[in-house]
TrEMBL record, chains A, B:
A Pfam family of this chain: TetR_N
Keywords, in A-Z order: DNA-binding
Protein's UniProt name: TetR family transcriptional regulator
Source domain of life: Bacteria
Residue ranges occupied by any HTH tetR-type domain in the UniProt entry: 17-77
């Protein structure tokens, strides 16, 4: 029996699928315990007993790994810079439309609401969401604004978008849950626009 | 030994403090299970084994009882109508200032953050917060607006205020958590004003 497994063991230390799964499990544990900011690719690799290079090989950046670990098919770290870099007078509406259209997709809504419930529900997991928002959404928007109060402006945008998601999708407050996306983009877009540029 | 307790039992069915405590315990259970809308003074009285009149006697309205049950020394059902009824061009700033100043008080912040974590954290308790917001905040603001889309306008106000509380006090996102109240009133007030009247 051992004759069949021995050559594989000698050739490479672990099977690829096995390492990938262990890295993902380590990421879930590490993000959950240390938050987004407190976790590094190196600390996750250490936890999984692999080299950092293997984590990068399988998952790319820390943001890539986070998206995979929480299972959310939504990537503000990839999508938002393009939205903010487009025509300036429509950034507010484009951002609101992007978020709402994403949350209309059942797989984003289901997992997104679950992440928000989990992250907001406990003092331990809140830094996870806070850290991800700060680095991958607010930080990226702020960098593109290049004004002294850019961080505060971007965080105010996050406050309105977070409030919209919480009231429409988590609390499902009647009139907001029933409103169509076009109407909400029209009403909320100018708020985001004003926070960013006025 | 029983000679001492017998006369009291005959005189009145229960001590006043005992009834009050039982009503409060019943309210916590009933609000937790049925949400704010699903609970009535009658259903809470029934659960406590007392008459509805006794609930009104000790606690007043359902909103009074809710405030007592969740232990939050903040009463939008009482304060908000006055704010909205004041000079029209400053309603947005007054509402934002009211909420922020309330949450700067440690006892409001501590219990408020706890209620938000509890209410958002679970599918079961979310209707509690949603129902209270809908009836006592959004409903009261909408009634004072008297326009066809008043409910949606008031709910958008709630979305920005909820987002502000979540990002500043629950997630404690850096630039927003550090900003002073005057600056935030100046930046967020016009958003609320526009949702209400533009």
């Amino acid at each position: 029996m051992t004759e069949h497994t021995a050559p594989r063991r000698r050739g490479r230390p672990r099977g690829g699928t096995d390492s990938r799964e262990r890295i993902l499990a380590a990421a879930v544990d590490e993000f959950g315990e240390q938050g987004y900011d407190g976790s590094t690719v190196r600390s996750i690799a250490g936890r999984a007993g692999v080299d950092s290079a293997l984590v990068h090989h399988y998952f790319g950046t820390k943001a890539d790994l986070f998206a995979e670990a929480v299972g959310i098919p939504l990537r503000p770290d990839i999508d938002v810079p393009g939205i903010v870099a487009g025509p300036r007078d429509e950034v507010g509406e484009r951002l609101v439309r992007y978020v709402l259209e994403a949350f209309e997709r059942p797989e984003v809504r289901r997992r997104g609401v679950m992440l928000i419930r989990t992250a907001l529900g406990s003092r331990v997991t809140s830094p996870l969401l806070a850290g991800f928002l700060a680095r991958e959404l607010i930080g990226r928007i702020a960098k593109l604004l290049a004004v002294p109060d850019a961080e505060l402006r971007a965080t105010l945008v996050a406050s309105q978008i977070a409030g919209l998601i919480v009231t429409r999708y988590v609390l499902a407050l009647g009139p907001l849950a029933a409103a169509d996306i076009g109407d909400l983009v029209h009403r909320v877009g100018p708020t985001v626009q004003r926070y960013l540029f006025d």
